From TrEMBL:
Pfam families from the UniProt entry: Zn_dep_PLPC
Phospholipase C/D domain span: 62-172
Superkingdom field: Bacteria
Protein name: Phospholipase C/D domain-containing protein
Length: 324
């Protein structure tokens, strides 16, 4: 049966709305994928809570822990130029984390600091064992492929039924604002305005809530028993998405949006490495709380930044110097 034109209008409007939702508002995506960090955080949270005398079943502390696990990347999501995330990754990141934990005197502060530590550990393991081997070096070697690998791992995780919770996380960012700002002042001698940290968190959490649907509706991931949306994703993924991605590549711009639209799904070997990293998480973290030596170096595991003179490190220093 042929569809009348007036019956087609709602379908056309729905299609155009979805296209706008998926592709029209992707400009704010400025960071590495958060969902691997959240999955890793959930794996180690019961262990670190027990080790530090906190209740793993305390929902509020778990949400603060999530915020800490995401915080080092938050600055990437701000539209205005800043060096917040670059500083977290390039300028004495392990010392920053250690002092953050040392000065945590409440359960809330400890949860935030330990979440931050989980982020650092996953960056260390994930970059050295999965991302950098694929790229053939650090972020500076091929920044687009670096992002595509990380977004691909996120797509893999979001598609698994046991990770449904990743689609509706609600980190408690307010609890981490003061500890974060105060620690920046301790380590770098400058204190950013709390509003900047809050805006970074809110921009990040907006994308954390939106990106699963961007991946799904653009055909980068498929969910069980969701035939209609999977079908729409297939259509967009084979029409609008490749055309838009090709246009972005031709323009030689909007690298972050291009990476989101062209994620590289992990191989079986990379999935196996990921599972090993997850299982090993508590073994990597708990000894640090018992006095074992902490790691060192930048969180990107990028040899080009070992001397602290790569563009990302220089940008972080320039931003810190610009603070009052």
């Amino acid at each position: 049966m042929l569809l009348r034109s007036d019956n087609l209008k709602p379908l056309i409007f729905t299609f155009l709305f979805v296209v706008a939702l998926v592709f029209g508002f992707s400009g704010g995506v400025w960071a590495l994928g958060p969902f691997a960090h959240l999955k890793y955080a959930k794996e180690i949270w019961p262990h670190v809570a027990k080790q530090t005398g906190m209740e793993a079943g305390d929902e509020r502390l778990w949400r603060v822990f999530q915020a800490g696990a995401l915080a080092p990347d938050a600055g990437y999501y701000l539209e205005q130029k800043n060096g917040l995330a670059q500083a977290a990754h390039q300028l004495a990141p392990w010392r920053f984390c250690k002092i953050l934990f040392k000065n945590a005197h409440t359960d809330s502060d400890r949860a935030f600091a330990l979440g931050w530590l989980s982020h650092c550990l996953l960056d260390l393991q994930g970059h050295s064992r999965i991302v950098n081997p694929v790229v053939g070096g650090g972020y500076s070697k091929n920044n687009l492929l670096h992002k595509q690998v990380e977004w691909g791992l996120d797509c893999y995780l979001l598609a698994k039924p046991e990770n449904d919770w990743l689609w509706q996380v609600k980190p408690d960012h307010l609890a981490g604002l003061d500890p974060w700002a105060n620690n920046i002042q301790r380590i770098y001698g400058k204190k950013p305005p709390l509003n900047l940290l809050k805006e970074a968190f809110l921009a990040q959490f907006y994308e954390v809530g939106r990106l699963p649907y961007v991946f799904w509706l653009s055909g980068s991931l498929h969910l069980e028993n969701r035939g209609v949306v999977n079908g729409l994703g297939f259509v967009l993924g084979n029409t609008v998405r490749p055309g838009y991605a090709a246009w972005l590549e031709w323009r030689d711009g909007d690298l972050n949006v291009l990476a989101v639209l062209t994620p590289r799904l992990p191989s079986e070997e990379e999935v196996s490495d990921w599972e090993k990293i997850l299982k090993q998480g508590p073994e990597d973290l708990l000894p640090l709380l018992k006095g074992e030596p902490w790691p060192c170096g930048n969180l990107d595991m990028d040899k080009a930044c070992e001397k602290g003179d790569c563009p990302e490190a220089l940008e972080a220093r320039a931003w810190l110097e610009s603070l009052p």
